[in-house]
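Project outcomes to date are best conveyed with an example. Our students and postdoctoral researchers have been running inverse folding experiments weekly, and each run begins with a structure described purely in tokens. The record below, which covers 212 residues, was selected by the lab manager from last quarter's runs and is presented without edits.
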């Protein structure tokens, strides 16, 4: 049995065509089904539906053989026990630093001010500001980072941005790009060795189906 871990929403939607190219079709839709384990047209392949940030954990421990996870999530997880053979080029966005419209970020940085930064991506933020030599106090949040600077919780946020409309609607502006983000295929390292004859053709089919 091959178990593939996916999260609901954009990752599931954007992974579907790749699965199809490998001859794998789910028999139920996770948006309407309450099942967390979804059978597919292939008796030897099943999907499990987990939180986006939990995908690397299921694959790391071998509870899933394969998974699809954003680079943002992988950076926070650390990647231990995971093989990352393919950038699927889906769920693309950017990891950015954003501040209130009226906050002079570059001045604060030049003055060496200690910045309060709210984010779900603590590891990413720590690495970014350490590399810049900017001192920060990191405040861990689990969602709606955009609110933090508006109510004085932080000076800045580190968050994913795609269109920028949410920032604009909340009088925030992006001041720095940390990295481009897309989703990667991740594979349990032991699974790849033990189930190579089944997994390798899947990897080949995904690779052929990736839209550049
Ligand atoms: P949860 O909803 O469980 O808290 P999440 O918000 O990170 O987790 P999704 O919104 O489904 O989950 O995002 C899944 C992945 O898609 C993210 O890890 C990221 O890589 C990518 N992503 C997030 N926001 C965007 C966006 N606006 N545009 C494109 N890709 C995005
Ligand atoms: Mg979400």
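After processing, the design step wrote out the following sequence:
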């Amino acid at each position: 049995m091959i178990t593939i871990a996916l999260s609901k929403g954009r990752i599931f939607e954007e992974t579907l065509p790749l699965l199809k190219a490998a001859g794998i079709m789910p028999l139920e839709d996770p948006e309407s089904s309450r099942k967390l384990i979804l059978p597919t047209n292939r008796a030897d392949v099943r999907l499990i539906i987990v939180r986006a940030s939990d995908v690397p954990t299921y694959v790391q421990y071998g509870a899933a053989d394969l998974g699809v996870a954003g680079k943002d999530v992988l950076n926070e997880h650390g990647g231990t026990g995971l093989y990352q053979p393919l950038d699927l080029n889906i769920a693309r966005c950017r990891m950015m630093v954003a501040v209130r419209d009226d906050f002079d970020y570059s001045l604060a940085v030049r003055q060496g001010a200690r910045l309060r930064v709210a984010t779900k991506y603590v590891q990413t933020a720590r690495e970014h500001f350490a590399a810049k030599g900017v001192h920060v106090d990191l405040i861990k949040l689990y969602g709606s980072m955009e609110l933090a600077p508006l109510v004085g919780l932080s000076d800045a946020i580190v968050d994913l941005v795609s269109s920028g409309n949410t920032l604009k609607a909340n009088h925030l502006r992006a001041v720095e790009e940390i990295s481009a983000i897309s989703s990667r295929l991740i594979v349990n390292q032991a699974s790849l060795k033990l189930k190579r004859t089944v997994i390798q053709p899947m990897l080949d089919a995904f690779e052929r189906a990736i839209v550049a």
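The chain has two domains: 2-91+182-211, 93-180. The radius of gyration is 19 Å. The training component of this project remains on track.
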